[in-house]
Amino acid sequence: MEDEFSVALRQTAQLMERELDAFLPQSTNPEWPLHDAMRYAGLSGGKRLRAFLVIQCADLFDVAREYSIRVAAALEIMHTYSLVHDDLPCMDDDDLRRGVPTVHKKYDETLAVLAGDALQTLAFEILADPKTHPSASVRSELVLKLAQAAGGHGMVGGQTMDVYANADTISVPVMSRLQQLKTGALIAYACEAGAILGHAAPAQITSLRAYAHDLGLAFQITDDILDVEGESSEMGKATRKDVDAGKATFVSLQGLEKAKIHANMLSEQASSHLSIFKGNANLLRGAASFTVQRKK
Amino acid sequence: MEDEFSVALRQTAQLMERELDAFLPQSTNPEWPLHDAMRYAGLSGGKRLRAFLVIQCADLFDVAREYSIRVAAALEIMHTYSLVHDDLPCMDDDDLRRGVPTVHKKYDETLAVLAGDALQTLAFEILADPKTHPSASVRSELVLKLAQAAGGHGMVGGQTMDVYANADTISVPVMSRLQQLKTGALIAYACEAGAILGHAAPAQITSLRAYAHDLGLAFQITDDILDVEGESSEMGKATRKDVDAGKATFVSLQGLEKAKIHANMLSEQASSHLSIFKGNANLLRGAASFTVQRKK
């Protein structure tokens, strides 16, 4: 039987599929290949954990779902752009993503670059749209924080570190910072966006930030563990890629057992930051457990 | 002797160099290659016509320069991202830009993709920053309109058309739409941003939009003319590229003489839209003349 968290995550994923279908452009104009590639990238499934976090964190403050769902969609679109570009031949050179060919394999490199570019733009377009929140100051802050999380001092900075990291000299603290930027920043934004929508008090924001920080790192360590232990058929992408490429990961730096202990510790620590929300944050606690228990 | 417009454009270019130097990141962190590539792309000169248009249009409404300069910088950063990605091997495959190696030649493709990505993000970050305007609703609208101009229904849509256009079947109207998206949308945004900052009246916005529309098209036709007539040494990039690639341009579609007449007609028409601003818009009229008279 599915637990409460798994049901909620699955419902979010279904909801996002419908929402993204409405947000992603469709046309018969001469630029349709772009719109086609954007839709292909955006609608090829995914756990939608980031969307889940936005909606659940906003729920803590009784934010109307019509607002949090739009922010969740914008964040999933931002995340999708980063995957499309990360998969490019000049980046991680991946052929498979979520069980289907990556965008540059399905179309070509040109469309993968352009679709990624336009997906990033679309994320900001959704956030700045008055439909996303009646308060312009909320919209403006949602844009500002997403830009800070995604840009050269956030996600793209982390991706750069990842590409240029020297596997022989990298340490656990450096790897932690790399992952905080590369994957942690958008996960933290997911939680912060809920707080922005909900006009959260400073202590609440601090708690959600701490939760997101630990969750993000636990998520990445688990990704590294799954790269070693996961089955390609279940993961929907190539496994043992990092190992085979001699790339530094938490597993290569800490060993498999220590990495698992580290991830579990972070997952428990993440949940403990939610104490001020009492029973209202149970689904977020479920997300923390899921993060380290998932098989893909 | 330089005319009033040329002096003002040169001053804007100098100003932008200083502003962009402050906006573009610099670090000794492990992600420094990204910041280095972003600075290289952003500080390699350029006419800065888009920045000029933002500042001059905002000046029509007595907007404080501290605001319009930031919006101008954000737009130049957005434009820079598009050039970096357009130059990529999978796009136009250009080795030279503004007389120096393109980003993927100076660094590599990976950094060119990532630097372009982070530059786009930075443009939105600047616009959403409270320093850019005290009114959140102005900031939010600046973000929304830039996203609309730059995304899949704007600049990136036009770039896609350009890549996939069939030179044998394309017509002047289709080419006009392509260029309106590819280069026209950001030029129109430059003028509209000035109007947003200045809380312009609807009739004033209509006039500036019409001006920008004609100016953008005149600009592009002139680019096509310069691709045929310009000197590579003066242009700072390869010429006759479109011709040699058998690519459709306004010159290939209309012939050189007709293209020149078309551009001049649009330039005069652009100026005529400014009549409601009387003598205050003389520098914008200068921009319209410059657009078709420039040698690079």
State the CATH superfamily name of chain A: Farnesyl Diphosphate Synthase
What is the quaternary state of this protein? homodimer
Succession of helices and strands of chain A: HHHHEEHHHHHHHHHHH
* Most strands sheet of chain A: 2 strands, antiparallel
Estimated share of beta-strand residues of chain A: under 5%
Instruction: State the CATH architecture of chain A.
Output: Orthogonal Bundle
Fraction of residues in helix of chain A: over 70%
Distance between the termini of chain A: 19 Å
Shape, principal axes of CA atoms of chain A: globular
Instruction: Specify Rg of chain A, calculated over alpha carbons.
Output: 18 Å
Q: Which structural category do the helix and sheet elements of chain A fall into? A: mainly alpha
Give the low-confidence spans of chain A: none
- Major sheet: arrangement of strands of chain A: 1-2
Total helical segments of chain A:
15
Describe this structure in words.
The structure is a homodimer of 296-residue chains. Chain A is an all-alpha fold and 296 residues long. The first copy, chain A, has a single domain (4-293), classed as Farnesyl Diphosphate Synthase (Orthogonal Bundle). The first copy, chain A, is 71% helix and 1% strand. In chain A, a hairpin with a 2-residue loop joins strand 1 (96-97) and strand 2. In chain A, helix 1 crosses helix 15, helix 7 (136-150) packs antiparallel against helix 9 and helix 8 packs antiparallel against helix 9 (172-197). The longest helix of chain A has 28 residues, at 202-229. The first copy, chain A, starts with a helix and ends with a helix. At the A-B interface, helix 2, helix 6, helix 7, helix 8 and helix 9 of A face helix 2, helix 6, helix 7, helix 8 and helix 9 of B.
